[in-house]
Design a protein that fits this description.
The protein has about 450 residues and is an alpha/beta fold. It contains 18 helices and 16 strands. Helix 10 runs antiparallel to helix 11.
C-alpha cells in the first residue's frame, strides 16, 4: 500500500483534531500532557518481563481471531512477557468502555487498552489518563511507514497517544447477489434515491426485510453513511468543525432518507450486535447490510465466497470517499508495567503484527510498507481505496467526535428508532453539536 494522497477535503476531515484541541482545553498541564522524550524507544531483547494486561472488546468472532494472532506473536517475540487477555464483550466496545472508565477512575489501569484513533481518545488525554507514545511511533518508523495524514489524525498538541493497529472502512454495503438477482436488481446504485428504489424492488420480490440492522451503534453508523451520501465529503466533515449546520436542509434530507431505510429493516433491540445483522445477508433473509469491513471476516467464517456468496460496494453516493476509523492501543498513565506495555505497542505497530492481525480481522494495515499480495480481494480493494479516496472520519467509531458527543448522538438515534420523528432527530442532533462542539 503506497502513501495515500491528501486532498483539501481530507484536510477538512481532520475535524477530529480541531475537536481535540477544543475539547481538551489547556491540555498541556499534567504528566500525561508532557511531550514524550525525544528519540526512539528501544525494547529489551525478549521483552521487559512481567504481566502485560491488554484491554479490548475483541471477545468473539474475527476480532478475537485477530487478537489471538497478536497474542501468539507476542509470546514468540517477547517471551519474557506474560500476555493477559482482559477482553470485555460488547459491540463497538459499549460494555468495555464502561468497565474501562471505572478502572481508570479507580487508578487500576491495564497495561494497554484499545481505543478508536481520533477524537475518542481526547477524553482520556484531557483527564491525564494516557501517556504520549511518540518514542514508540518513532521506533516503528514514524512517517516512513505510517501515512503522514494518519499520524496527523493521531496527534494532539504535538503528541501522539496511540499506536494504530489497522484501518477500517465504515461506508460499505454488503449484499447477497442471489437475492438481488431474484429481485431484478442489476448494477450498483449511484446515489441514495437509486438505492432506495432498489430496496423497494427487493421488498416487492418477497423479501420481508431488505435491509438488516443491529443495535443502536449500527444505526448510528448507518446514519453517518447517509449523511455522507447526502452532504458529500466536505459537507459531512463540516458537521464537526461547525461549517455545516446540523439543522441544514441537507441534514433534514438525510434524516428522511434514514427513516425510509429503516422502514425496510428488521426490528432490532438496542444491544443487538452486528454479526446477526450480517448473517441475515449470508442466509438471504436480507439483501443488504451497512457495516464496517470487519464484516468480511464474518462472511469468510460462514463459508460465503466473494462474488457469489456476497458482494460489496460503497454506500451509494459515497463512491470515492473512505469513511475512516482505526483501532489503536494506548499507554495508560500509572500502569504497573509501562515497558511491557511498550513491548505490546511495538508488536501492534510492527509489520509482522499488522499483517497477522489484519488478515484475521478483515481490516487493512495502517503501515504503508505491507504489500497487498497476501490479502484477499476485498482487503486489496480497501488498500487501494485508502490510498486514493478522500478520507473522512467515522462518527460511530470515535474518529470524528468524542465520547460525550457520540453518547448524545446515540441517544438521539435510539429515540428516533422508537418514534421515527425526523424533526425531532434533527433537533436532537443539532442540540448534541451545540453542547459538545468547542
Amino acid at each position: 500500500m503506497g502513501v495515500r494522497k491528501t486532498s483539501a477535503v481530507a484536510a477538512v476531515a481532520v475535524a477530529a483534531l480541531g475537536l481535540a484541541a477544543c475539547s481538551t482545553g489547556d491540555a498541556t498541564s499534567g504528566d500525561a500532557q508532557t511531550s514524550a522524550a525525544s528519540g526512539a524507544y528501544t525494547p529489551k531483547e525478549g521483552g521487559a518481563g512481567g504481566k502485560v494486561g491488554v484491554f479490548t472488546w475483541w471477545a468473539a468472532g474475527s476480532e478475537k481471531k485477530g487478537l489471538d494472532a497478536l497474542e501468539k506473536l507476542f509470546a514468540k517475540d517477547y517471551p519474557n512477557d506474560e500476555f493477559v487477555n482482559l477482553a470485555v464483550a460488547g459491540g463497538a466496545g459499549t460494555n468495555a468502555k464502561a468497565k474501562l472508565a471505572s478502572d481508570l477512575q479507580n487508578n487500576q489501569p491495564p497495561s494497554s487498552f484499545q481505543g478508536h484513533a481520533g477524537a475518542e481518545l481526547t477524553d482520556y488525554i484531557s483527564k491525564g489518563q494516557i501517556e504520549p507514545v511518540n518514542d514508540v511511533i518513532e521506533a516503528l518508523g514514524g512517517s516512513d511507514v505510517f501515512p503522514q495524514d494518519l499520524l496527523d489524525r493521531l496527534t494532539v498538541k504535538g503528541n501522539i497517544y496511540s499506536v494504530p493497529s489497522n484501518i477500517h472502512r465504515a461506508n460499505v454495503v454488503w449484499a447477497n447477489p442471489t437475492v438481488l438477482k431474484k429481485a431484478g436488481v442489476n448494477g450498483t446504485p449511484a446515489d441514495m434515491s437509486a438505492w432506495i428504489a432498489d430496496i423497494k424492488k427487493v421488498k416487492a420480490s418477497g423479501v420481508k426485510t431488505p435491509l438488516s440492522v443491529g443495535g443502536t451503534w449500527t444505526q448510528v453508523q448507518l446514519l453517518e453513511t447517509v449523511l455522507l451520501s447526502d452532504l458529500g465529503a466536505e459537507g459531512y466533515s463540516g458537521l464537526f468543525d461547525g461549517s455545516t449546520a446540523w439543522d441544514s436542509d441537507e441534514v433534514k434530507q438525510a434524516a428522511n432518507d434514514f427513516k425510509t431505510l429503516l422502514s425496510y429493516a428488521n426490528t432490532a433491540s438496542d444491544g443487538d450486535d452486528w454479526p446477526a445483522a450480517t448473517d441475515m445477508v449470508i442466509d438471504g433473509s436480507a439483501a443488504y447490510n451497512v457495516m464496517g469491513d470487519w464484516a468480511v471476516a464474518e462472511f469468510a467464517d460462514k463459508g460465503a465466497e466473494d462474488g457469489t456468496g456476497f458482494t460489496y460496494f460503497p454506500v451509494p453516493g459515497t463512491d470515492g470517499v473512505f469513511d475512516f476509523l482505526a483501532d489503536s492501543f494506548t499507554l495508560p498513565k500509572g500502569t504497573d508495567n509501562p515497558d511491557g506495555a511498550k513491548d505490546w505497542l511495538m508488536l501492534v505497530g510492527s509489520a509482522e503484527g499488522q499483517k497477522a492481525f489484519n488478515l484475521a480481522k478483515g481490516s487493512i494495515p495502517a503501515r504503508t510498507d505491507i504489500g497487498p499480495e497476501d490479502f484477499p480481494k476485498y482487503q486489496q480493494s480497501a488498500m487501494s481505496a485508502f490510498q486514493d479516496n478522500t478520507i473522512v472520519s467515522s462518527i460511530a467509531h470515535g474518529a470524528a467526535v468524542n465520547q460525550a458527543w457520540l453518547t448524545d448522538i446515540s441517544s438521539a438515534v435510539s429515540k428516533f428508532y422508537s418514534q421515527r420523528d425526523v424533526d425531532g432527530l434533527v433537533s436532537d442532533l443539532a442540540t448534541a453539536a451545540q453542547n459538545n462542539q468547542g
